[in-house]
Q: What sequence folds into this?
């Protein structure tokens, strides 16, 4: 009779335990995704400062989540606004050893103010995380 009671308690506790494990896994994935985004952004900033001698960083922005709004996935988006005397093609040539410019995942745009924006968007390590839903 005692083993039936323990078995019943185990059956009742099992869904709570599995839900807690799933929740911890999702939180762990969110933390890793945010760390990956911050690392990507700092690497992008370092590469810009290394390759473009007259660069002036205006602003740095990063976002982790479903940046495109389509599907259930998590992206790491890094975007930096900067000024330089170089032209857009020269900037892409300087950074081509680090990035593949494809007008969607990595691109350089010139703003109306004359500044440049570089954006890099990659898939997160935990791309199927709840943060992308």
A:
């Amino acid at each position: 009779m005692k083993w039936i009671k323990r078995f019943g308690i185990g059956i009742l506790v099992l869904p709570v335990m599995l839900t807690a494990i799933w929740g911890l896994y999702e939180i762990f994935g969110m933390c890793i995704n945010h760390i990956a985004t911050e690392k990507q952004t700092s690497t992008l900033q370092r590469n810009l400062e290394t390759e473009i001698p007259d660069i002036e960083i205006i602003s740095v922005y990063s976002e982790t989540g479903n940046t495109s709004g389509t599907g259930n996935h998590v992206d790491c988006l890094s975007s930096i606004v900067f000024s330089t005397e170089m032209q857009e093609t020269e900037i892409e040539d300087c950074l081509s050893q680090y990035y593949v410019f494809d007008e969607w995942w990595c691109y350089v745009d010139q703003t109306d103010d004359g500044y440049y924006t570089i954006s890099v968007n990659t898939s997160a390590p935990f791309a199927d995380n709840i943060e992308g839903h």
User: Anything to note?
Assistant: The first helix runs from residue 2 to 51.
